[in-house]
Design brief:
Oligomer: heterodimer
Structural class of chain A: alpha/beta
Number of strands of chain A: 9
Largest sheet of chain B: none
Order of helices and strands of chain A: EHEHEHEHEEEHEEH
CATH superfamily of chain A: Phosphotransferase system, sorbose subfamily IIB component
Number of domains of chain B: 2
Number of helices of chain B: 10
Distance between the termini of chain B: 61 Å
Low-confidence stretches of chain A: none
Mean pLDDT of chain A: 94
Distance between the termini of chain A: 35 Å
Radius of gyration of chain A: 15 Å
Helix content of chain B: over 70%
Low-confidence stretches of chain B: none
Shape of chain A: globular
Number of strands of chain B: 0
Chain lengths: 159, 248
């Protein structure tokens, strides 16, 4: 088994991830990569409420997850890795640590500096260039909120 | 507790029924949450229009939760606002709980409770009850659960504040979901078994329906989750065609 989903989604552990993707991919572990949440026990407890009973949850900093990534990609337990912003995912992808993998864009919502690319996906210029950097690290980037919905590649998205 | 606070809390609770009224992709139910909290915010910031405006702007940001469980977040935010908690901490609380309230609610209600109640009502229909009884029974049973969840959610949020996680753990919603799903599977098995065995009522006869069921099962087993949408469309079209031909 391996990392079955790398996903950028502001809501992190929620219905689309746990029910939508989770029932299809059957991961045994969900890892949230976020420097702030890695040190906040009370917030972690709230996020953990949404985990399925048969899956474990971990909260790691970008540095911690980068160290564990090679082992996770070759682990017996299948893993879903979640970030709520583009930047931590870029942090994981640097130095071609995620070469050959696909990053799924699942939900970045409206804010004043972002432009709507899809109804569930809004990006600012900084995020768009960070996604291109991820691609330059040998990673494919696509947008798809649910397994049954249309997959849109990054170049189409940023046209 | 003052009459003003009680009245504001009651009006806030009643507004939770409208929380999806302005759903949109930009803020999801964020606008609905701000509207729901307005009676409490008006009571708190009476005579302070700038602070009221600022609080509404904070709460109109993107937020999402299952509508029936959104009362947990609403009740907790009411308590945090009343206690004068740091706005940044309230924002982080909302960010952290929204996903869990979505996945817990989706599993318990959309995947578990609603199909179970529907199957129970269909079983009553199969036993010979007229359609209005079937529909009425579904609406009554479903809304008993729905209304109870709404009230319970708001109250535990109000009591727990940002520590509502302890109350939620005690409630063991995943365990309740598991039991509901098991009961739903039992009801589905019983209903399908009765329908398939009673070949006389199947119009086209027993064997064609059994064949269709077997093909559907094999397809679902092979393709899995991705098959549900086309299957739903094909099933609806098949039922329509059979109805027109007078076979169902």
């Amino acid at each position: 088994m391996t990392v079955v989903l790398f996903r950028i989604d502001e809501r992190l552990i929620h219905g689309q991830v746990v029910i939508g993707w989770g029932t299809q991919l059957r991961p045994g572990r969900y890892i949230v990569v976020d420097d702030d949440l890695a040190g906040s026990e009370w917030e972690q407890e709230l996020y953990r409420l949404g985990l399925p009973e048969d899956a474990e949850g971990e909260f790691l900093s970008v540095t911690e997850c980068r160290e564990r990534l090679p082992a996770l990609r070759d682990d017996d337990v299948s893993t879903v890795i979640l970030t709520r912003r583009v930047e931590p995912m870029l942090g994981l992808a640097r130095d071609r640590r995620m070469e050959g993998e696909t990053v799924n864009l699942g939900g970045l919502h409206h804010s004043t500096d972002r432009v709507e690319r899809l109804p569930y996906l809004h990006l600012n210029t900084g995020e768009a260039s960070q996604l291109r950097e991820i691609v330059s690290e040998g990673v494919t980037v696509t947008a798809q909120d649910l397994p049954g919905s249309r997959r849109v590649d990054l170049e189409t998205l940023l046209l | 507790m003052s009459l003003l606070v009680t009245s504001a809390r009651l009006r806030t609770f009643l507004r939770t029924f409208l929380i999806q009224g302005s759903w949109n992709y930009r803020s999801l139910i964020g606008g609905g949450l701000a509207y729901t909290l307005l009676p409490m915010l008006r009571a708190k910031f009476r005579g302070e229009p700038e602070q009221l405006h600022s609080a509404v702007r904070r709460h109109v940001q993107a937020f999402n939760a299952h509508p029936y469980l959104s009362g947990i977040a609403t009740g907790a935010v009411v308590r945090l606002e009343e206690e004068g908690a740091d706005p940044e901490m309230i924002g982080r609380f909302k960010d952290a709980i929204r996903g869990s309230l979505g996945s817990l609610g989706d599993g318990l209600i959309w995947a578990g409770f609603r199909p179970l109640v529907l199957l129970l009502a269909l079983m009553v229909g199969w036993l010979g009850a007229p359609p209005y009884v079937v529909i009425g029974l579904f609406l009554i049973l479903y809304n008993i659960g729905h209304l109870w969840l709404r009230v319970w959610s708001f109250l535990i949020g109000l009591q727990g504040g940002h520590r509502v996680v302890e109350r939620l753990r005690e409630a063991d919603l995943p365990g309740l979901t598991r039991k509901t799903l098991a009961a739903g599977s039992l009801a589905l098995g019983a209903l399908v078994g009765v329908v398939v065995m009673d070949g006389r009522s199947l119009g086209a006869g027993f064997w064609p329906w059994l064949l269709v069921s077997a093909v559907g099962f094999a397809l679902g087993h092979r393709v899995g989750y991705a098959a549900w949408r086309p299957t739903a469309v094909l099933t609806a079209l098949a039922v329509l065609a059979l109805s027109i031909l007078g076979l169902a």
